Amino acid sequence: MVTHxxxxxxxxxxxxxxxxxxxxxxxxxxxxxxxxxxxxxxRPSASELSLGGLLKHVAEVEQSWLARARQEPPAVHRDxxxxxxxxxxxxxxxxxTQLAYWAEVAAETEKYIRSAxxxxxxxxxxxxxxxxxxxxxxxxxxxxxxxxxxARHAGHADIVRESLDGKTAFELVALEQAGS
Length: 180
What we know:
Number of strands: 2
Radius of gyration: 17 Å
Number of helices: 6
Structural class: mainly alpha
Order of helices and strands: HHHHEEHH
Shape: globular
Strand content: under 5%
Strand order of the largest sheet: 1-2
Distance between the termini: 18 Å
């Protein structure tokens, strides 16, 4: 759901990009408001997606891209054999632990983007068949990619939540504002 993102300071491109990213994160967090762990793990639509799984996925993806920008290995390595695990809460993972983890990742993303000398700074893309050979992307690209990835899954979260209990994004915004 579109929520208003406040105007950044004049010329504050970093602030604008980070504000839009945080607005999209909010869509996913709102979709989880008032749910039990069982509801968050359930798959109420034709899709294999659950709200808990979407939460875990966006946190992992953001962390992995931040690690790439820092030229470090991601905290969790995923390949074809484990990709599905990035979309499901496993073991002792809970919504609360994933929300806390994502908050840490988000704070690190903000700190890194705000402290970088320039959004034009680049880093190498991983050696994967879906990336161009020896490709590089800028920190601006990273921010835009994270916005796109998070927004895409926030839309999925809206559908999954509505399938669970009929609550729409508008109702969830009101619930959040009421202090749920």
